[in-house]
Design a protein that fits this description.
By secondary structure, this protein is mostly helical. It is built from 4 helices and no strands. Keywords: Membrane, Transmembrane, Transmembrane helix.
Length: about 160
């Protein structure tokens, strides 16, 4: 009976002797998995970043279109006002003395000149903002789509886990 109990106890020391190898094998697996998971996570991050950048570019493009429409509408609105004012001046020419008409015309020209300058400055400022936004978006797209940042993350993760 003693031998049978000893026989059942014999495998246990061999299992404990093999335990370090077993643990080492088990430790290797999570490291490999974590590297592959980090690469997968980096790929997911890259996809998400590219998707966000696509949205940013679309927003910038839509913003540019809206700004162009606004500027065109503003210029059109000013030109409509000028036409209306000119029409009013022409209508008044029939009934008002020439001196008053000249004064009105000069005032209209002055107002139109001021509005034109303000519009030009606003257009330049808007264009500068749009160019800056497009430049920033282009840099972001170049960095992230080029994969520099994501590759750096993957390299760091792999180096840390080796």
């Amino acid at each position: 009976m003693d031998r049978s109990t000893q026989g059942t106890l014999v495998p246990e020391p061999t299992m404990t002797n093999q335990a370090p190898l077993f643990l080492m094998n088990q430790l290797k697996k999570p490291i490999e998995l974590s590297v592959s998971q980090s690469v997968t996570a980096a790929a997911v991050v890259e996809v998400v970043v590219v998707a966000v950048l696509v949205v940013v570019v679309v927003v910038v493009v839509v913003g540019v279109v809206v700004v162009v429409i606004d500027v065109v509408a503003l210029v059109f609105f000013i030109s409509v006002e000028v036409v209306v004012v000119v029409v009013v001046v022409e209508v008044r020419e029939l009934t008002v003395s020439v001196a008053i008409v000249v004064a009105i015309e000069e005032a209209v020209v002055a107002v139109v000149a001021v509005v034109a300058v303000v519009t030009a400055v606003a257009a330049v400022v808007v264009a500068a903002v749009v160019v800056a936004a497009v430049a920033v978006a282009a840099v972001i797209v170049a960095v992230f789509v080029g994969g520099g940042v994501v590759d750096a993350v993957v390299i760091k993760v792999v180096v840390l886990q080796k």
